[in-house]
Every structure is written in C-alpha cells, then in structure tokens.
Amino acid sequence: MKTACAAILGVGTEVTTGQISNTNAQWLSKQLWTLGIPTSVQTAVPDDWDLIHQALVDCHKTADLLFVTGGLGPTTDDFTREVISKWSNLPLSFDPEAWTTLVGKIQARGVLVKDMHRQECFFPQGARVLNNPVGTASGFHLSLPNSKHVFVLPGPPKEIHGIWQDHIQSWLTDWARQIDPGLTWSWDNVGLPESEIATRVEEVLKGCPFEKAYRVHLPYVEFKLSARRSQQAEAAPWLQKITDVLAPWTVARDGEDPGATLIQHLLKVPGTLLVQDEKTGAFLWQRLIGVGKELLNSQKLSYTNQPGAAAQAACSLKIEATQDPHAVVAFASLGQEHSQWRIETPSAWLKFADRERQYWAEMAILHWRKWLQERPNSRP
C-alpha cells in the first residue's frame, strides 16, 4: 500500500492580515487525520494572483491531496478559479445547471440576481462540481495526473462542512483504503514538567525508528508516537515501554478528554448538579462549558463561587478554599459528602497563580471522573 499526505491552502487577505483565524485548515486537517491522512503543509496567501499561483505550485509538489479554500464568490477579489484554471491548464467553462441552481438559491433569499453571480458557475474543464448545500458558491474537484486530487472550496466554514459531508467524505473514505494510513498514539500526563517527561521517554526509546513529539497544553504534557498502520506490530514493543514508564503520570490516552468523559458521567446522575468553586476563579467553569454543552442545555447544572451552597443541589462538586496554597476537592450528594481529596500543587507552579488555578480545576475534574468511574453503584 502507498502512503499519502495532504496540503491545505487558504486564500484571503482577511486571513493573512490576521482579521480572521484560519480555522478551515485546522478543521480540514482534523477530518483528514481521522482517515489516517497527515497534512504536510498548511499555508495561507492574500488575494494576490501571483502568490496564489506560486502557492499552488509549491503545495502540489509535496502533497497527493490539495485543499484550496476561499475566493469562489462573485466579487472582483474572488479569482481563485481563474488561477486554478491557469495553473492546471484547464480552461473554464460555464455550467448551466449550476447557474439554474444558483439563481434559485439567490431568489429564495429575496436577493436580486446580478451578472456578477455568473462567475460562480465557471469551472475548469473536467471538474466535478460540488454543490454547496449552505451557500451559493459551489466547490469543485479536479483529478490531475499522477493520481493527485485538488478540492477547491468556498471560504465560510459552514459551507466547507456542508460540502465535505455531501461530496467529499464518502469519496475520500474510499480513496483512503488504497493507502497505508498514519497512526498516532498519545499519552497525556500530569505532575511532571515537559523536560522530566522527555528524560524518561527518551531513555526507553533509544533506537526507536518512529516519529516522536511533545506538546504542552497546561496542565498536561502530551507525548505522541506516530507510525504507519503497516508498522503496528513493529511499534507495539515501543508503545508498551512508553506506557510503562509514564504510568504514574498518565491520566488520558489517545486524545481522550477527561472533561468530556466527566460530563458523560454527570449526565447519568439524577437530579440537579452544582459546581461550587471557591478556588479556581473562572478556570473550572470555562473548562466544563467548553465540553459540556449537552449538560448545560439540560439545565440541570449550575455554578457558584460562594461556600455553603451545596445543599441547594441533589449533587455537588466542590473545590474548597484552604489557608495554604493547596485545595480540597469533594463530591457530595443530598448534603452528605462521599469523598474528599487534597490536591498538592507542584512546587514549580506555586509562583504562577493562573497555572495553579488551572491545575486545581483539571485535578478536580480528574478526581470526580475517577470517583464516578470506579464507584458506579455509589452514584447518588
């Protein structure tokens, strides 16, 4: 089986000037990686003909799949399709069917159809038109020599998501069966700084042929090992060595989010829930709402930073204030405490108030999650 990689090219001056973030590249890379396709290049260029053309040349050299986003609209700064046509040596042709669909969409919105809209219906010869279920500008797919493919998409994220779901995902899933996909294993660790994690890992991975990587996303230090699916058997002994050496500090594996896992457990707890946080400021609540929209929508979860409020809820998750730079975490229901843990802050973080609060918040999540996982019969 062959290997493959992708490149993502964002077109738009609004991206290169920092007016907006290039979230499209992040989203596309994540979707590709779920199919085992790594992204080798992420880049962005302004609405400049020559720069777009050069970026296409460069990206095409390094990738089997090229995704281009932006510049497909009706205005004068939307000329991505023209640059693609010149670069691929495929003349543009007008698509009457796409025009009929576009006119219907515009009129349904109560907007007057203008001649400028016609440019959205020109596509390179031989392109597969990707109808846009959300917006007006459809994308297109080109199959080029040497088994390379180019997907040209509009800029708005929701439109990319819609086209992906309707036209790209199934095609790409079938295409990915021909390749030897990439795999990544990860260990999220708490309690040791990055340098200490690296010292232990590097010692047991001497001679390891696979790609290693580290990432700090406080309070975690993540270690990752990557290989191809065909190399799984060869990678297995190295994976075991990493698992063994990091066991005392590993709290999550392979992208698992402890906060999201906690939310799923809390959804099963009957009655109202109260988070009583006297220690972390906004860190704990922000962490929970970031992964717990389903729980928030249920209207069973509330928050307070005031002591003595736990009796108002059927179940409470508390971080209590103390006189020292530590915290006490408790899980209680119907006014009766089930478990309590004292959180010791790593000495290196005692001088950084925000890091310390962030650590308390995450450790509270880990303790609550563990309690619910290990004592299912004791849930309130």
Written overview of the protein:
The protein is α/β, with parallel strands linked by helices and 380 residues long. It has three domains: 6-176, MoaB/Mog-like domain (Molybdenum Cofactor Biosythetic Enzyme, Chain A, 3-Layer(aba) Sandwich); 182-253, Alpha-Beta Plaits (2-Layer Sandwich), CATH 3.30.70; 258-378, Maf protein. 38% of the residues lie in helices and 26% in strands. The chain is built from twelve helices and 17 strands. It has helices spanning 13-16, 23-34, 49-62, 80-88, 96-108, 157-176, 194-204, 232-246, 258-266, 283-291, 293-297, 353-374, and strands at residues 6-11, 39-45, 65-69, 92-94, 122-124, 128-130, 139-144, 148-153, 182-189, 211-217, 220-228, 250-253, 273-277, 301-304, 315-320, 327-333, 336-343. The protein has a six-stranded mixed β-sheet, sandwiched between helices. The protein has a five-stranded mixed β-sheet with strand order 14-13-15-16-17, with helices on one face. β15 and β16 (327-333) form a beta hairpin. α3 (49-62) crosses α4 (80-88). The longest helix is centred in the C-terminal third of the chain and has 22 residues, at 353-374.
